[in-house]
Amino acid sequence: MKLLFATTNSGKLTEVKKVFSETSFTILSLADFPVVPDIVEDGLTFAENAKIKAKTVYGLFHVPTLADDSGLSVEQLSGGPGVFSARYAGKNATDEANNKLLLEKLTHFSEPHLAKFICSAVFYDGKNFILAEDVMEGKIIHEPRGVNGFGYDPLFVAEGFSVTNGELSLDEKNRISHRAKAFNNLKNILLEKLL
To answer: What is the helix (H) or strand (E) element at residue 46, kind and residue range?
Structure first.
């Protein structure tokens, strides 16, 4: 069965393909389809934004759709950047710009900078939504380390680890990541319901 993952982010796509690699699902991405208009993610939660993406993409291509919204929640920043994680430093912000702004905001607070990554993953088939969520607890450090991953990975040290997500291999990260766990939960539900 083909599932369209509503993303153009190659890092996310690699993670999700790995989760579904030993199933009969084939994961497509928006790169396999004509140009998609910008989707306005104006939900107040990660789950709302994931549903907006899934519904919009399904409406365009009529292929059962996976979507997610995820981001970083920092305790000292009242849960920020939250749903604005990807555009923390502005609409077309780079990972570097977002990381720089995060570190600037945290200079006023003492360590540890407790944080968690949150992911809401959804499946939509034109009628029903299936939602799965998970988190990865950890902390933010002051100097980026590592070149793997994307987003805030070089600044985030997961609970129980001494290295950043940017220093973990994809396999290591997939064992603990919020996205991998959320999509694994979703995969298990889909295997039960669809196959």
So the answer is: helix 46-61
